[in-house]
Amino acid sequence: MKTLVTIADPGLLELFWRPAVRDKLASFSEADFVSPGQPFDAAALAERIGDYDACITSWGSPFFSPDVLARAGKLKFIGHGAGSVASIVGDDVFDTPIVVTSANTVLGRSTAELAVSLILAGAWDHAGYAARLKRGQWSNNNRESVLGVTRRTVGIVGYGEISKQVIAMLKPFDVRLLIHSGYCPPEEAAALGAELVGLNELFERSDIVSLHNTWTPRTEGMIGAEQLSRLRDGALFVNTARGPIVQELALADELRVGRIFAALDVYASEPLPREHEWLSMDNVLCLPHIGGFHGLLKRDLCDFIVDELHRFTKGEAPIGTVTREHFRRLTPR
Length: 333
Known about the structure:
- This protein has 14 helices and 12 strands.
- By secondary structure, it is of the alpha/beta class.
């Protein structure tokens, strides 16, 4: 077994490939790493891939173009030490015998934890109270209250790895769950104690809406004025998915009025300009796309992939296997 690791970024190498992880891989496979800090593109990958049975990738790794796949005669496994594999493979990889897997299970937990933290921070108006405190305003116990999370109705838009973990993390808060997704079987929703509803109904009935759809041509702009206007006064909208799923002009209109709250980690255009109006609004909490930043979980991405490869070599099914059906639902970038 020979494995090529196509991660050239020195920072990622230091983060992912601790001695224990390198030793684990070396215990069952010969491993070669591309030169740190040196360019390594699809052409370079095509030249080298023919000698390898497995390839481990992450952010910045080259794409498996048709030319690369044509030269990958021995390749049986591609393991992506990150989330979506759409940046490294195309649909054509599923016409080959190559098994594709990713660490999305690990990374998804990081994003889920951020989503829940934004639900809590938004529902407790952290942004507003912090801003007012900096202006010298103290809270008024006799007149003020917050949305909070316990026993509220939470609408989950999209059903996948991240939203499943969000739902599990919210369980201690005794929330009422609504789900909008074509990929959640009714029996699974029932087991979660959730109700499957249409998109507009979800916005009408929810105190908190958390967006978890992948960004595809079908989902781009799916949240607009028709949905946002249905949120009740004081409701919270959370987005840790992708900015272009939301029509930001419509969201801006609602936020300017001050009728709803938002907690956002993603935007249609990133980075968010420092003069963006949302950064000065008390009812908006903005973060700079940090969903995958959990230190321990991020560090373990390639450790997970090494375990996946080991499972594969023993004839076991990898946990994070990506199928063609799943691939076609992924955010393309």
